[in-house]
Amino acid sequence: MECTEIILTGHALARMFARAISPRQVREVVAAGEIIAEYPDDQPHPSRLLLGTVGGRALHVVAARDDATGRCYVITVYEPDPAKWEPGFKRRKR
User: Fold this and answer.
1) Model confidence pTM above 0.85
2) Partners of 62 in the beta sheet?
3) For residue 3, what are the CA distances in angstroms to 19, 28, 70?
4) Could you report the per-residue pLDDT of 16-37, keeping only the tens digit for each?
């Protein structure tokens, strides 16, 4: 996801702190992660669920991009739960 700037929301920062996820790890996922879901109707900007692996740890990052400025707003960050996600963490279990 191309971003001119990455902004961590208060919610994302709280989740990162609780889950021991660093800003560097989040930046890596935003820069090189795979888009596994898109939410075009999210407001105020469409968002995407990104999957990345940093240091052997799978991470999901939900980020919204303001197309007018190129800024990306990180909404939340988490380590996907294998009980809820298919192997590879790209699809939720049914």
Assistant:
1) yes
2) 49, 76
3) 24, 12, 5
4) 999 999 999 999 999 999 999 9
Task: Specify the pLDDT at position 58.
Answer: 97
What ranges do the domains of the chain cover?
Answer: 5-78
- Spatial CA neighbour of 27 closest among 61, 57, 70, 55: 61
C-alpha span between 67 and 70 (Å, rounded): 5
What backbone phi and psi angles, to 5 degrees, belong to 62? -100, 120
Q: What is the pLDDT of residues 38-57, one digit of tens each?
A: 999 999 999 999 999 999 99
**How far is the C-alpha of 32 from the C-alpha of 53, rounded, in Å?**
9
Q: Does domain 5-78 have CATH number 3.30.2310?
A: yes
